[in-house]
Amino acid sequence: MLAQRALPDPDTLAESVSGRDRSAVARALNLLDDRRPEARQRAARLLATLPRERLYTQGHLIGLTGPPGAGKSSLTAALITVWRRRNLKVGILAVDPSSPISGGALLGDRLRMLSGQADSQVFIRSLACRGEYGGLSAEVWPMSLVMLAAFDIVLVETVGVGQKEIDVSKLTDTTCFVAQPASGDSIQFLKAGIMEVPHVLVVNKEDVGTAARKTLAELRASLRSNPDAGDWQVPVLSASAARGSGIEALADSLSDHRDWLQQNRLLKPRRHRFQAEWIIKRLHEEFGWFGIRALGGEQDLLAQLTTEQESPFAQYDALRERLLMNWKT
Amino acid sequence: MMSTDNNKVKRDKPWLMRTYSGHSSAQASNQLYRTNLAKGQTGLSVAFDLPTQTGYDADHPLSHGEVGKVGVPIGHIGDMEALFDQIPLDRMNTSMTINATAAWLLSLYIAVAERQGFSQSALQGTTQNDIIKEYLSRGTYIFPPEPSVRLTTDIISYTVENIPKWNPTNICSYHLQEAGATPMQELAYALSTATAVLDAIRERGRLDAAAFANVVGRTSFFVNAGIRFVEECCKMRAFVALWERIAKERYGVDDPKLRRFRYGVQVNSLGLTESQPENNIQRIVLEMLAVTLSRNARARAIQLPAWNEALGLPRPWDQQWALRMQQVLAMETDLLEYGDILDGSPIIEAKVRALMEGAEVEMQRVAEEGGMVQAVETGYVKRQLVASHTARMRAIENGELKIIGVNCYTETAESPLTAGSDSGIMKVDAAAERMQIERLQAFRAARDAGEVGIALQALEDAARQGDNIMPASIRCAHAGVTTGEWSGVLRNIFGEYRAPTGIDISGAAVGRADRVAELREQTRRTGEELGRPLKILVGKPGLDGHSNGAEQIAVKARDVGFEVVYEGIRLTPEQIVKAAEEEGVHLIGLSVLSGSHLELVEDAIARLSSLGLTDIPVIVGGIVPPEDEQNLKARGIAAVYTPKDSDMNQIMADLVNIIRESNGLKRFENAA
Ligand code: B12
Ligand SMILES: Nc1nc2c(ncn2[C@@H]2O[C@H](COP(=O)(O)OP(=O)(O)OP(=O)(O)O)[C@@H](O)[C@H]2O)c(=O)[nH]1
Questions:
Q1: Cβ(A201)–Cβ(A235) below 8 Å
Q2: Are residues A269 and A178 in the same domain?
Q3: Could you report the predicted ipTM of this complex, rounded to two decimals?
């Protein structure tokens, strides 16, 4: 007889995840990815059970983005080495594009992130963007939360030039943009205001020499301040993933930004706002502006969601329920 | 009877005849070499095992299951002496297929010659020493491109000065065709590789013009010849003409002798089939014609695969058969009595010109990428190869490319060739690894540790200071340093590299559109039923570098809608199992062609069960003899695929069903 596989029990799973058990994190991510109604309920329960302070006040959620081939994966690998030396546990979410025709995807980013040995304190999950939510798939937010419960650093790597990389800056504490030497694109985008200013800018491949130095100078000259970053001074750094140079400084800048958020009491509100936006975005995908208006409009929803501080699935499901009830009556 | 009106052309000298061989141990391989020489073979071609090629000692964890499997294990000077026991090196012409560790194996060879009482200047032979195609196809690279190219140029500079008759590098297009390259791509990438290496030597600026012209003259090539033998023959003529031009125009070599395109050959093996394996004999003979017909573009050395190429390793009798093919062509036929029989044919001329023009366009493209090294690092060339191979697979699938016994005329009587108790292949002695480790450990215990330490320090200094690596390596050889120690020093200094996989080509699905559409629908539906898109991991455990199958499966699976995790070659079962867990895949597919499937699969299964992941189905593909297939299935492997399973659509349909069954869903019937 064929036996369907049982879904994991969310309470035990939450306990193991907060106990930083790698296998449990893997199972939790599978559950979050699972769209069957029964799985959704359990996932909501899982997220609601994980320790709230870990998800919203601890750890460091970093977004790393930049044009294809800039060396994001190589830099991630180099950062992993530094973080491991600092004895931090690291989780990576690597987002790759899917084929619009087949829906299939080749997930190869792990390749450059591998070091010689299998390190049990580094966890890498690749995710196809599945053609939704701009460049990021909807699962990234809940998955980041689960990883925050188990790792000290969670890094989301995505391809992005221009508008698209804004997505990752709408999810993470700190956005780091990797610029490609001799490619004017990022500078143009920054100047034109098409691209939101990241919190940390790094020109990779400084080993190539002149081109990297030139790009560095141009970026420094064209930088505006990040409107949502207050008095944070955006560092423009130079590094080489290949040589391993400038990586310590990059890691320092990333953690400086986190400290700055913390000191200014911005970390927690930031995560809550992103969660609220994530929920609204998903409601919008399902019900359009009509649905959002029926729930009181975007501004009200935002205000309401950022104070309530429930788990994202619970909030989403409650709102959805409300909408459907409204329409029935 | 000899023909009399042969225009008074001097009979051409036959090419060197070799057989690519080596297995189990230096002693066993020495036996084999001496028998082969007695049978009329005129040179040696050494196949090393994968630990030796990738710089590990036999007792290193990564060597497990690989020692003595696909070649001879050489761990130190003792092994090298045993390999050439009673073979005087001053009179032998030895070709060594060795790349990342070429400087080391050449040093051992020199040290053995010295111990035999000869000066190194008397040595003749070839070190393959072409690292670029390792990143693209062959897979036994260690270090990143920059230090690797430096090692290559060190060997060249050293031998041109000290071993004048040595061919220090054999720039290879052979392996590119084996990875799917078209004739035009073979021409373009091999010649771009040659110029990358020669440019690097010129830039180092340590040689005067005459010495540099000699370097150009000593540069030789190793090419492939496929079944389209007319075109392949034209390809050889195109090589000759292009190389002549490059030597003259780019490098200003005046002496025509130093501009000659000198090459050795192994004929195509990718097209040799598991089904009706006797057909491979015809294929091999026709391919040999491609590189011998045209006297002005004739090979200088030939080695042929055996009829049982796709089944497993050849036995001595299989190799003898391959050698006899060469002897019949060279000695029984009248081929060598004539001048170039293709000169003056306008058809040949036009084809050669077309190939040259195509190659020049592609060489220009590579130059625009920043040269061959850069084009390898960005993945450009690898993507071109994967795309060509995908096109080839598609042509086989839709019948455009006919392969007798595979996609047409599949009716067959039982072959007596495979009926014997050995199933028609050679089995390597299972005790070979253990015995090699014992010899290695005894050797280590007996050597002068102080001298080893000093020699390794000198090696480190030379590597760091940019001195030529050869003198320090020869010293290491005499001191009793091991292969793993020599490589370990350089690994620490240069670091290790992982090459681009090239599978990120834009998608044009292999196969007829209707089946693909049906498969996509099945993949999508199953994903929906299981709550998320189907995700699989294609893993290459062990030191095996055969990536073609894994790449093609990965690309095809993407095209029918799977999310595919593929991280390239040479991973440990531990890394693969860790990735499978972290990625949450529905299925793991392991691809092993190097013969160590039993050890590696067993290791992976044990790790999966210790993580409680026994519910993920595992399948295996590659060179798996029938009795091993039974063995693997008995250990829970859900399916085994070998070269005869050439219908990729069927494989995809199976994957969906295996995932369905292991998740309690009903199979799709008469799928694909
Ligand atoms: C091409 C080839 C090469 C190329 C590889 C290029 C590349 N990047 O892949 C080159 C020239 C580099 C090469 C080198 C060597 N080769 Co080789 N090579 C072959 C050859 C001719 C064809 C393999 C191939 O690519 N077929 C095409 C692909 C598409 O088919 P496939 O991999 O079999 O995959 C199919 C199925 O097996 C299955 N499958 C495979 N993997 C997977 C995975 C999954 C998930 C699934 C579902 C299915 C699946 O599906 C595929 C579709 O049909 C075979 C002999 C033969 N004719 O099979 C020898 C062979 C595999 N090579 C062999 C050897 C010994 C070597 C060397 C080790 C020699 C040496 N001592 O140096 C070297 C070193 C390679 C290394 N680093 O490991 C031996 C292995 C002997 C053994 N197992 O006992 C063979 C069998 C030849 C022989 N008889 O001696 N080789
Ligand atoms: N010279 C130099 N090359 C680098 C450096 N870092 C990465 N590269 C090369 O740049 C190319 C792209 O590197 P990746 O790390 O794959 O870049 P990525 O941004 O993740 O690329 P995508 O995944 O395609 O978006 C590779 O060929 C790397 O070898 C560096 O510091 N210096």
A1: yes
A2: no
A3: 0.93
- Asked whether the beta carbons of residue B531 and residue A39 sit closer than 8 angstroms, the reply is yes
Question: Which residue lies with its CA nearest to atom 26 of ligand 2?
Answer: B378
When divided into structural domains, chain A yields a total of 3
A4 lies in a domain? no
Both A199 and A311 in one domain: the answer is no
Rounded Cα distance, B81 and B27, in Å: 9
| Residue of chain B whose Cα is closest to the Cα of A126 | B583
B56 touches chain A (CB under 8 A): no
Question: What stretch of H or E contains B619?
Answer: strand B618-622
pTM of the shown model: 0.94
Indicate the SS3 state at residue B124.
Answer: strand
Per the domain annotation, does A214 fall within a domain? yes
Domain spans, chain B: 16-418, 513-662
Region B16-418: CATH code: 3.20.20.240
Here the CATH number for the domain that contains residue A20 is 1.20.5
Residue B250 above 50 pLDDT? Answer: yes
Amino acid identity for residue B21 in this structure: S
The residue in chain A having the minimum alpha-carbon distance to the alpha carbon of residue B378 is A69
Q: Which domain holds residue A317?
A: 265-329
From A74, A178, A208, the mutation candidate for ligand 2 (largest count of ligand atoms within 8 A of CB) is: A74
The answer on A256 and A149 residing in a single domain is yes
Q: Residue A323: which pLDDT band, with cuts at 50, 70 and 90? A: confident
Please determine, looking at this structure, whether the domain spanning B513-662 carries the CATH number 3.40.50.280.
yes
Residue B354 burial by Cβ neighbours in a 10 Å radius (0-12, 13-18, 19+): middle
Per-residue pLDDT reduced to its tens digit, B277-320: 999 999 999 999 999 999 999 999 999 999 999 999 999 999 99
Each residue of B149-176: b (16+ CB within 10 Å) or e?
Answer: bbbbbbbbbbbbebbeebbbbbbbbbbb
Q: How far is the CA of B287 from the centre of ligand 1 (A)?
A: 19
pLDDT at A19 over 70: yes
